[in-house]
Amino acid sequence: MTQLEAAKRGEVTEEMKFLAGREGISVEKLRSSVARGHTVIFRNVCHDWVKPVAVGNVVRVKVNANIGTSRDIVNVKVEIEKAKVAVKYGADTIMDLSTGGDLDKIRRTIMHAIDVPVGTVPIYQAAEEILARGKAIIEMSEEDMWKAVEKHFRDGIDYATIHVGVTREVVEKMKKSKRVVGMVSRGGTFLAAWILHRGEENPFYRDYDYLLELAREYDVVLSLGDGLRPGGLPDAGDELQIAELYTLGRLVKRAREKGVQTMVEGPGHVPVDQIAAQVRMAKVATDNAPFYVLGPIVTDVFPGYDHISAAIGGAIAALNGADFLCYVTPAEHLGLPDVEHVRRGVIATKIAAHAINLTRFEADFRKDYLMSLARGRLNWAEQFNLAEDKERFIEIRNERPTKTEACSMCGDLCAIKIINDMLARDG
Description:
This protein is of the alpha/beta class.
């Protein structure tokens, strides 16, 4: 029985009890949201060492970090380090997007190295394995695709991106599209190319009921992928993106009827003034399914700083109802991220999530209140204790020392110190 099925029956699972305590909400509030499909719980029945995580409208905005090898760079040790660093700095989940090396071993090693939920994109493995046989991606068989999905589910991955909305109909629309960037989703592109080559329907869409059977067996959350998300600002909100979104909305309903947990992925590159409308539209189209966004990235002309652009977009998206933020690193659009890129990406996205969470949860605001109190008293020890990134805090303090109790920005001209001294004297 899945978490959704249990919630619909009015039953409270151990995962619900654990998560309600972690989130600081009532068990009934969480159960009710899960029953409606507005919140999902990540925990594959085979992943018994994982700490479950909830994503949805009654819990905190969560952060995901993508890691994984490429066909050019395969260093499993580094990917494990990235995963651990991401979790250390606040990632709630990890996605293994590896496309090079022994993918089964890499995935299983990553899963055993951390205790947070892990997501994957199974079609990446199907594509890599067909290439390893000296064939083209478009030569994948349907059996290749399904084999990868089943293997990932059986291994215990907690959520999987499946690009079910890349249908033959929408791919045909692409032929007349005036898109500037085309498709930027790897998994979505693999399927679109396969459809164009074969002239057949997307197997995951055509045989969606079978996908639901597999997901139900392992209680895997289906992350319905945005294969047609905009990869550049001019493409935001175009016909292809919206057509896919409404297809996903229909598929969410079918999944709920079968007891399968789902969330929906969103854009992409979106101008700042369109983000609120796009998030709200997605929530309506999918009956308030948890919304998982990549960024959104709000400008295209700052490569090397896309983690900042994405954090801006993520904060606006979360303010308007997005539930799950996928980090973007400074290396986005430029190359495979290193460990430091991962750290920066996680922290930037965590800032965006926390900025929204502190408006929703008293406990989160309380920490910011205490930091303000410590700053007002120039209590550096307490500021250090409250800082999310303590290493960075100490690094800057040590690099820029001062002989006063203030910081080296102002020294004995510190506004806080001056006014505190005057108030104390007059008091």
